[in-house]
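hey so i finally got around to running both of the ones u sent me last week. sorry it took forever, my laptop kept dying halfway thru and i had to restart like 3 times lol. anyway pasting them below in the order u listed, first the sequence line then the structure token line for each. didnt double check formatting much so if smth looks off just lmk and ill redo it

first one:
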Amino acid sequence: MEQESFLTGYVQDSRVRLAMQRGGVTYALDEAAIPSFEWLMVNIQAHDLLPRLDSALRDPLPADARLTLRGLLNRQPVWAAGVTYKISEEARERESHNSTVYTRVYAAKRPEVFWKSIGYEAVSSDDFVGIRADAVWSVPEPELTVVFNARREVIGFTIGNDMSSRDIEGENPLYLPQAKVYDESCALGPRILLRPNADTWLDASIHIRIERAGSVAFEGRTGTDRLNRTLPELTDYLGRCKTFPYGVLLMTGTGVVPSDAFTLAAGDVIRIRIDPIGELVNTVRTVGHGD
């Protein structure tokens, strides 16, 4: 069986540098051959990605090297698709007092896609994620995330956490940007599973566990087989009238929704696992200020 390949970053001399993982070993990449993640996204076509990375492999890194996508991503925007799972449609309808907006989106030909973050603001594994100080109902949203190069070719998949304020979005759908886009609201990583030119979803289980004071406060699971949209469909609408000169990442929606009585609290630890990508781990803290 062919070994999976991953792209990630490692911290050295206060800088995040490119690395590639294969067979449990992490290799530094030659910066003369591949100067940055952004350069890779702009200059290398998907069909040539793995050969170019293989040719740039250098020394193995220590087993305890800190791996992260934070600092690796830069001018790549992060977009998100909403209401792509049935459970998400049902939850959005409840929080919006049965407005029917989300039911119509779930069944519509045109999907919901919206801007979430810019790469340099996204956090990665072992970083903090934020909950708004002026929100009272905050949840994580574990999502398979697609990585595209500047040609909108699929490079691979990573793990995303689309932090959300359900009370703010539920008050009025036009408040969605405030519910979704704020400091530390977007987490990605810790590595990218390389699947150049993929045109179908990664067949994967998505598992989330939220720990509070040493106990499990919530646990849930879904699978990409429950996605209501295809990968080509979302790719098409994402790029119909928008170019991405540095590449783009797309979160694909959540199929795990905690009960309406649950809200995150500062100090909670969120663990999202999608095999074979790995686990994205973040601790929650409050950001901003209230009324």
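and the second one:
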Amino acid sequence: MRRLLTACSVVLLVLLNTLVLIGPMLLITLLKLVLPGKALRNACSRGVMWVAETWAEIDKLIFATLTPTVWDIRGGEGLRGDRSYLVVSNHQSWVDIPALVQAFNRKTPYFKFFLKQELIWVPFLGLAFWALDYPFMKRYSKAYLAKHPEMAGKDLEITKRACERFKELNVTVVNYLEGTRCTPAKQAAQGSPYQHLLKPKAGGVAFALAALGPQLDALLDVTLVYPGQRPPGFWALISGQVPKVIMDIRTQELDPALWAGDYENDPQFRQYMQAWVSQLWQAKDARIAELKREL
């Protein structure tokens, strides 16, 4: 009963927070659509992000008050709101997103996620994602692409087009290289060579770097680790069943060579990018094993 009451309280307060702040967010977004001039539109974009950051800070307060979760954040010193970052993280659970909010909100510019197209239909949140200019990506199955080869690469085109819109403002672009949440079943299905991760995909991050590379000040390599054999779901978080989350943040410089080639048409550059991503993932897999030994 206690867990149910905790979960209901968290959900109601987060929902209330969303209902109160989504109105100002959408109003500023409408102004952005009608106001003339790039400077005014950029000011509206900053206003939308300020509302989103306020929403996130209130949510952090709700979780801190009602749930026992300890957010063990390691690294990330010296982060600034007037810089742009590329965040690369492993992906295990819906809890990953609240964890990133805990680590980065009002320390870096507000996140830009690449989202599945279906999420635009989530009540209230879908509208907020649209207002924040989150790119919605359509992923096609191999069977579909076999019948419609003209659609190959369309999701990467969306990535590049979306990143072009971010050039006017400081941003924090989040890329989950695995493309989906990691589970033992998915690891087995793809024959993953990693103990704790799925195979990473280099295409999305390559296009983000091609569009935004010179603007980005650093890579934030985030490793998330949860207690127990299985990552907790969102219900476990809101009902107070997640005792601790470890977030290990490594800040790295980005080599300009990472955006100096054509990922689609240059096999050598594609191999270089895939090798860079593979190196990141090998180090992350070892880091997860090390952190899990603490729990």
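quick thing i noticed on the 2nd:
Residues 2-34 form the longest helix (33 residues).
anyway thats it, ttyl
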